[in-house]
Amino acid sequence: MTHGGHHCSLNACSRCCWLSQHQSWTDDLPLCQLCGVGMAPNCVYGPDGKSTQTHPNEDCHFCFSTDCCFLYGVFNGYDGSRVANFVSQCLTAELLLGQLNSSHSDADIRRILTQGVPFHQLPPQFQKIAERLKALEQEVSGGATAVVALILNNKLYIANVGTNRALLCKGTPDRQNQVIPIGRAHTTDNEEELARLTQLGLDPARLRQTGLIAGQSSLRRIGDYKVKFSYTDIDVLSAAKSKPVIAEPEIHGGHSLEGVTGFLLLMSEGLIKALEAAHGPEQVNQEIVAMVAAELAQQSSLEAVAQSVVERVKRLHHDAYASGRQRAPHCSRHEDMTLLIRTINYPLSDGSLTPTQGGRIYPVSVPYSNSQSTSKTSVTLSLVMPCQGTLTNGTSTASTLEGGTPTPGQSPTATLQSTNTQTQSSSSSSGDGSLFRQRGSQAAQPDETGRVPPYVDFTHFYRLWGTEHSEGPGQGVLGPQ
Predict the structure, then answer these.
(1) Predicted structure pTM score
(2) Is the peptide bond before 254 cis (omega within 30 degrees of 0)?
(3) Higher pLDDT, 285 or 67
(4) What is the rounded CA–CA span in Å between residue 125 and residue 148?
(5) For residues 426 and 380, what is the distance between their CA atoms, to the nearest angstrom?
(6) Which residues, 6 or more positions from 136, have their beta carbon under 8 angstroms from its beta carbon?
């Protein structure tokens, strides 16, 4: 690796050895104030619905800023946190000790990101371990997947290894939110990954059928040397001409952030899988973005925003399990969850409404039919109720939080969000509190479809929807206004 035409003073091996003796050196790096991180540990639910953590949290992350760049990462460890912690430390040393500067081209940056982590060779201390693999099996079994974001020269670069996810949410000129997934998970659902393994002599049909390889869905992993060096002992991989499970990152970028207003999300696989288990995989990206937009409209701290979204996903997952309905069998457990949010010219709330003041979001899903469109469309209606005063900004959401019944005199804000496979839009308007029907003393019982009579009168919202969309579809706004 070069820097300004000169060889770096520390090569990869010496830096990794140095890190092993200075594990807290990153404490002196300036943290980025433009991002927030939320986390939740893994859990398994018992018959009584109570959760128990099955192993220590194995996720880790970083978010640093320097004079020339910003660096973010989310690492999903498995079979221990050792690899995830090591890689996060090593990557930081490889990128923030002067290797990057504003004169680098896109090709230079992609090369530096590719070489930044020991993706291709074992650190020296693990070389000896690999030679004694059978005796030290536990020491080399752990691994991690990673998604890393670098912002340099107002361009975004993403390096991805495995099954974590990066989403860029951008505001469009017509004031909608465009959700852009950057990269694809390295699983058997990825046609490019299957093509790579087919070239090694493996059967793509068997790989699809198998799904999990040595307990993990990812075909690219950092560490996990037991699998990489003993792949011939794994039936579905045994015919490979060379190592099929690799750790080479897929690099995307640079994506210009000039004029962009929105936010970047880095998510661990545990967060994605928990929401997929609760609601199905079809609209996970849109749901996460809607949750983040809702929290950004209410909270003034990015750390609180990220943690609130993680807690909402955790609660959705638990409620799906507790319901005993269709999604319950998929929700008996979840892994560690991490969400990193980085705003890009995106205004935060002034903090007038926060969860500690009792602000809650009450969503109600209702069918919506558009006679001019044949695409599948769903609508989510959200009522944001402040504990006191009047809320002026409504935002879309697709999840449920705990909260009390609204009291007379409160003024809710309603948001109607329409989504389909092509576009997203929503519109907001203030209600007058008459939207809630009086609840009886007895809880309503679900019918044969699992639904209960609505507590909300939608007549007013249908009228508002028709009025605000009389000039044509797509006039609404997702997120804060």
Answers:
(1) 0.68
(2) yes
(3) 285
(4) 25
(5) 9
(6) 129
Residue 409 burial by Cβ neighbours in a 10 Å radius (0-12, 13-18, 19+):
exposed
Cβ neighbourhood burial of 384 (10 Å; 0-12, 13-18, 19+): buried
Q: Token match 């909270």: residue?
A: 299
CA-CA-CA-CA dihedral for 102, 168, 318, 36, to nearest 10? 40
In angstroms, the CA 48 to CA 328 distance is 14
Task: For 34-59, give the secondary structure using H, E and C.
Answer: CEEEEEECCEEECCCCCEECCCCCCE
CA dist., res. 398 & res. 379, Å (int):
10
Q: Bridge-partner residues for 414, per DSSP?
A: 383, 429
Q: Are 86 and 119 in contact (CB under 8 A)?
A: no
The residues, any chain, with a CB within 8 Å of residue 182's CB and separated by 6 or more, are: 156, 158, 160, 166, 167, 168, 252, 253, 255
Give the pairing type, strands 360-366 and 59-65: unpaired
Q: Identify the pLDDT of residue 135.
A: 58
Paired with 334 in beta bridges are: 43
Span 372-420, pLDDT tens digits? 333 333 334 444 333 333 333 333 333 333 333 333 333 343 333 333 3
